[in-house]
Every structure is written in structure tokens, then in C-alpha cells.
């Protein structure tokens, strides 16, 4: 169970540190000071995790129980590997019986029990290679992918939303029935088409922002739980299309709510 980190820990770095003025730009100095003084960063170092992002996943799981019972997990946008560390632990993945497949175009140091692919997830060959590395259908697809920021809010939102949409379609193609999908998005509204697609395919769809996600950050996550299975999803899509054409059938997707 994840607990919010305290402001200090025995043996940890003291908070409230200032970086001396030098060659660093003011913005870079402020970022470094925030990073060094972040209690989640300090806690991740003390507990042996590769990034503070692990606490986002653990806090989401504490409330929504998406890791429980997962036998295979795919981690999209995995570097530096914090979520993959958690995935390997909960699945009992090891070198002889790998149950976690991860991908990122950035380098990532090897992790026991994690099959890592250094390639762009948008590469046409990536989905098949991930499934080959995993050796079976996943119970959970995680995506912490985000496009490099440009400084233009609307552009950054659209680029990251596109990655979220591609990840969602991939999840629907590969998940076991009952499986879950968690993906990073940005505040500003998840596109209606994506929410409709997720509602057609999952039993519940919500937005979540865990405490470990910095309050000033526009980052949030879309969580889709309870994959209905491909046949059920196709049936729901047909019902919704019939409703739009004037039929009296009720769309199954309309029963689910989102934040």
C-alpha cells in the first residue's frame, strides 16, 4: 500500500535545498531545485525505484485495484523503468518466465523479468514484437507515453492524445477479457471519440489524477477497467450505430460515466 511521502526521512537528503547560481539558466535551476526537494524523488531513491512515477501507479492501484491478479503486463513508454519494476514484481516475472514486455524509443537499463524493446511504439512492427516478447495476452496495458513538449499547450495536448488513442486501440486488440488499460493524457479534455471508443470496450472509464502527479502539472490519466472482449465490443458498437440511425436500441457505452 502506497503512503504519501513525508517531508523528511532518516538518512535522506534534506529538503529546501537551493542551487547556487552559475551557468544554469534560472528555469533549469528552479527545475533542479524542485526535483531535489521533491519528497517522492527522495523516497524513490530510498526504496530502490527508478523514478518517482512508481507512486502514481501505486496510488492509482491502491484505489482502483488494477494490478491485482495481473499475470502479464505491457508497459508503453517504459523508460526509465519504474512502472516495469512494479509490473515485474506483481506478476512474479523472471528471466525464465517473463511476464512483462516494455517499449520505449529511449534507452532503458535491463530489468530482471522484463523484455525491453528499444523502438518507437508507432513503428508498424512494434505491436507484434511486443506480443512475441510477452508470450501471451496481457491483463493490463500501461501507457506513460507523452510526446516531447513544444511549449504550445494545444499542440502538446494533441500530440499526447494521439499517443493515447494509439495505445487504446492496441489495448483493445490484445487484452484478455476483464483486463484494464491505464494511459497518460493531459488536462484539457480527452477527445469524445476516444472516450466513446473506450466506453464501448470497457465496463467503466474514468479520469484520475493521483497525489504523486504534481498539482501544477496538466498531466492526468484515463483508466478503463473491465475489457468486455472483442466480440462484445463489436456488438456494442453495432448497437450504438443503430441508435444514431434512429433505432431504439440503447448504447451500452452510455451506461458508463467518466470524470
UniProtKB/TrEMBL annotation:
UniProt region (Disordered), positions on chain: 1-27, 229-259
All residue ranges annotated as the Ribosomal RNA methyltransferase FtsJ domain in the record: 49-227
Enzyme Commission code: 2.1.1.166
Compartments (UniProt record): Cytoplasm
Described function: Specifically methylates the uridine in position 2552 of 23S rRNA at the 2'-O position of the ribose in the fully assembled 50S ribosomal subunit.
Organism phylogeny: Bacteria, Pseudomonadati, Pseudomonadota, Alphaproteobacteria, Hyphomicrobiales
Regions annotated as coiled coil: none
Keyword annotations: Cytoplasm, Methyltransferase, rRNA processing, S-adenosyl-L-methionine, Transferase
Active site: 184
Top-level EC class: transferase
Biased composition (Basic residues): 10-27
Name by which UniProt lists this protein: Ribosomal RNA large subunit methyltransferase E
Residues that coordinate or bind S-adenosyl-L-methionine: 81, 83, 104, 120, 144
UniProt GO BP: methylation
GO MF annotation terms: methyltransferase activity
Catalysis: reaction(s): uridine(2552) in 23S rRNA + S-adenosyl-L-methionine = 2'-O-methyluridine(2552) in 23S rRNA + S-adenosyl-L-homocysteine + H(+)
Family the UniProt entry places it in: Belongs to the class I-like SAM-binding methyltransferase superfamily. RNA methyltransferase RlmE family.
InterPro entries in the record: RNA_methyltr_RlmE, RNA_MeTrfase_FtsJ_dom, rRNA-MeTfrase_E
Main location: cytoplasm
Species annotation: Pseudohoeflea coraliihabitans
Amino acid at each position: 500500500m502506497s503512503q504519501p511521502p513525508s517531508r523528511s526521512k532518516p538518512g535522506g537528503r534534506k529538503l529546501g535545498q537551493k542551487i547556487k547560481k552559475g551557468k544554469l539558466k534560472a528555469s533549469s535551476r528552479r527545475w533542479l531545485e524542485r526535483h531535489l526537494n521533491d519528497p517522492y524523488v527522495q523516497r524513490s531513491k530510498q526504496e530502490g525505484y527508478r523514478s518517482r512515477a512508481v507512486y502514481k501507479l501505486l496510488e492509482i492501484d491502491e484505489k482502483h485495484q488494477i494490478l491485482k491478479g495481473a499475470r502479464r503486463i505491457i508497459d508503453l513508454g517504459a523508460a526509465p523503468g519504474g512502472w516495469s519494476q512494479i509490473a515485474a514484481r506483481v506478476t512474479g516475472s523472471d528471466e525464465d518466465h517473463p511476464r512483462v514486455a516494455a517499449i520505449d524509443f529511449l534507452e532503458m537499463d535491463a530489468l530482471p523479468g522484463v523484455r525491453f524493446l528499444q523502438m518507437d511504439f508507432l513503428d508498424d512492427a512494434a505491436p507484434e514484437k511486443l506480443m512475441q516478447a510477452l508470450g501471451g495476452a496481457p491483463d493490463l496495458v500501461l501507457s506513460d507515453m507523452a510526446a516531447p513538449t513544444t511549449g504550445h499547450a494545444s499542440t502538446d495536448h494533441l500530440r499526447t492524445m494521439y499517443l493515447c488513442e494509439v495505445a487504446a486501440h492496441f489495448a483493445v486488440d490484445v487484452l484478455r477479457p476483464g483486463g484494464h488499460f491505464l494511459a497518460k493524457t493531459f488536462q484539457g479534455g480527452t477527445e469524445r471519440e476516444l472516450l466513446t471508443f473506450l466506453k464501448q470496450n470497457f465496463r467503466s472509464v474514468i479520469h484520475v489524477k493521483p497525489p504523486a502527479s504534481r498539482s501544477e502539472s496538466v498531466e492526468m490519466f484515463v483508466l478503463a477497467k473491465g475489457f468486455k472482449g472483442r466480440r462484445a465490443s463489436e456488438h456494442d458498437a453495432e448497437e450504438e450505430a443503430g441508435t444514431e440511425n434512429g433505432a431504439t436500441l440503447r448504447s451500452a457505452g452510455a451506461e458508463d460515466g467518466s470524470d
